[in-house]
């Protein structure tokens, strides 16, 4: 698709700001102080979208609460990646029925990836009349207009058309207070891994203009954010659609020139598009954390082929070897699926052996969940849930031992961390993150919050390190 058709026009964006003003004026005329509750499920991409929803609502005059029953507007910003995520949303909708009986004026909105699935929007249309507004990720930028339609017509509004997808710049954002910020650098996915729903609900890959990304990061650094994560389903294909011979490594190198005390992270990376140039750029940078989330999904070549991942176990191991050769301190994490349709015990154990061979600092592990509409959902899946659970438990046992071992190796060392929060552990009241994003629970004063400090690691377990300032 031509780029001019991907970018939402300035005029359209101005129109949306007009709808925000209309909503603001409507509440002001009623002398009402509207309150919204946004419940976000799923990945950081969705969290970033939730922050845009908050940004638009803040301009409309809303304040925010965590309690749905106290809200005038409840938004479920949903995830479709596994069945469990969807079940939770339907559970929440059930619970909202009661709140809406108490407050019939309450507006309920379902958005995010689930909303973009036809099967879901039809179910909502038919069986959940309490939901007033349904829109998918493609319609996020026109949320003000959709909300205005709901307030004006009091009719149910659905905006869930299947699309290539667009890019809308300049949407207001409410960010978390503190040091962490998320920056989407691209949207959508072209990979169609056979198990995955994301390409169906998030459209095709679209890269933001490099200058827009760089400016956003610069503004965040100036505003005091120190731990900035660049987001995309596969950041390694950033720039492919720009047609200017500019790739993700080029973007990282340019961002790295921004002066200041901050770290840059990114996720996710697809091994098929990870390049030596990327690892060399990371190694040479001042601000890019030596941390890599490189999902491998399976350690067996047949399963990888069926998953449509387009790399082999050996190619993955080569990448890791190269990355570690240029960054010996690299902290590695990954995503893994156990129980893909047709996977045998021996094939699942290939995944376990890859985990042992690489030595990941942490893993995000999932049991395969069939997603209607994907290719894998049509494949025969003879292994029982109990068998898959047994393989999964074996994987966790191996990984937990590995995390504990790698964490124990930190004891006695001094590492630089960014103090990012408070904890309710009286002995270790602060939380912090190493450059590799390992959690360090800290003894220390509140005044350290938001600062980079050197700490000595005094203890560890599978999940965290413990330390004190030096
Ligand atoms: N685009 C990223 C990538 O390719 O690494 C992240 C995709 S998804 C949001 C996050 C993880 O969920 C995937 O890496 C995969 O391990 C897992 N996942 C996706 N579809 C799944 C399914 N149908 N069942 C179980 N896990 C799934
Ligand atoms: Fe899903 Fe694969 Fe795209 Fe990741 S790369 S979002 S796993 S289709
Ligand atoms: Fe993310 Fe879930 Fe959508 S993982 S992209 S919110 S399906």
Keywords:
alpha/beta, five-stranded mixed beta barrel, single chain, binds FE3-S4 cluster, binds iron/sulfur cluster, 19 strands, 14 helices, six-stranded parallel sheet, 470 residues, globular, binds S-adenosylmethionine
Describe the structure.
- This protein is α/β, with parallel strands linked by helices and 470 residues long.
- The protein has helices spanning 3-6, 10-29, 44-59, 83-102, 118-127, 143-153, 198-202, 210-222, 248-256, 276-284, 301-306, 313-326, 345-358, 385-408, and strands at residues 35-40, 63-64, 73-78, 107-112, 133-135, 157-159, 180-184, 186-187, 206-207, 227-231, 263-267, 291-293, 331-338, 362-367, 414-422, 430-434, 439-443, 452-460, 465-469.
- The strands form five sheets. The chain has a six-stranded parallel beta sheet, with helices on both faces.
- α5 links the parallel β4 (107-112) and β5.
- The radius of gyration is 23 Å and the shape is globular.
- The model has no long low-confidence stretch (mean pLDDT 97).
- The structure holds S-adenosylmethionine, iron/sulfur cluster (SF4) and FE3-S4 cluster (F3S).
């Amino acid at each position: 698709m031509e780029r001019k058709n991907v970018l939402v026009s300035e005029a359209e964006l101005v129109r949306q700001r007009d709808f925000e003003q209309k909503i603001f004026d409507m509440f002001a005329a009623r002398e009402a102080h509207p309150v919204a509750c946004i419940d976000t499920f799923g990945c950081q991409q969705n969290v970033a979208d939730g922050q845009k929803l908050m940004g638009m609502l803040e301009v409309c005059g809303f304040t925010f609460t965590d309690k749905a029953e106290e809200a005038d507007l409840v938004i479920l910003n949903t995830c479709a990646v596994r069945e469990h995520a969807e079940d939770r949303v339907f559970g929440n909708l059930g619970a909202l029925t009661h709140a809406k009986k108490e407050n019939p004026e309450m507006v309920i909105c379902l958005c995010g990836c689930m909303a973009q699935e036809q099967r879901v929007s039809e179910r909502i249309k038919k069986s959940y009349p309490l939901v007033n507004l349904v829109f998918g990720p493609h319609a996020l930028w026109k949320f003000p207009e959709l909300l205005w339609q709901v307030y004006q017509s009091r009719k149910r509004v659905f905006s869930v058309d299947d699309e290539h997808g667009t890019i809308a710049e300049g949407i207001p954002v409410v960010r978390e207070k503190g040091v962490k910020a998320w920056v989407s650098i691209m949207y959508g996915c072209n990979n169609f891994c056979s198990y995955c729903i994301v390409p169906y609900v998030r459209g095709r890959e679209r890269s933001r203009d490099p200058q827009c990304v760089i400016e956003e990061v610069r503004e965040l650094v100036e505003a005091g954010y120190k731990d900035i994560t660049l987001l995309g389903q596969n950041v390694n294909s950033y720039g492919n659609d720009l047609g200017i011979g500019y790739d993700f490594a080029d973007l990282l190198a340019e961002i790295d020139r921004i002066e200041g005390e901050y770290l840059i992270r990114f996720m996710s990376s697809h091994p098929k598009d990870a390049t030596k140039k990327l690892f060399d750029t990371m190694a040479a940078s001042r601000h890019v954390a030596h941390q890599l989330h490189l999902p491998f999904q399976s350690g067996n070549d047949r399963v990888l082929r069926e998953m449509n991942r387009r790399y082999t176990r050996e190619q993955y191991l080569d990448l890791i070897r190269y990355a570690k050769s240029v960054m010996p301190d690299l902290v590695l994490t990954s995503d893994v699926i156990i129980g893909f349709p047709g996977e045998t015990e021996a094939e699942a154990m290939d995944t376990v052996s890859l985990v042992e061979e690489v030595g990941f600092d942490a893993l995000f592990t999932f049991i395969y969940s069939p997603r209607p509409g994907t290719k894998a959902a049509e494949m025969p899946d003879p292994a029982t849930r109990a068998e898959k659970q047994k393989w999964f438990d074996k994987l966790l046992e191996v990984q937990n031992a590995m995390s504990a071992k790698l964490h124990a190796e930190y004891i006695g060392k001094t590492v630089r961390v960014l103090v990012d929060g408070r904890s309710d552990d009286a002995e270790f009241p602060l939380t912090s993150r190493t450059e590799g994003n390992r959690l360090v629970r800290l003894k220390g004063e509140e005044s350290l919050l938001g600062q980079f400090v050197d700490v000595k690691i005094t203890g560890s377990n599978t999940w965290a390190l413990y330390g004190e300032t030096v």
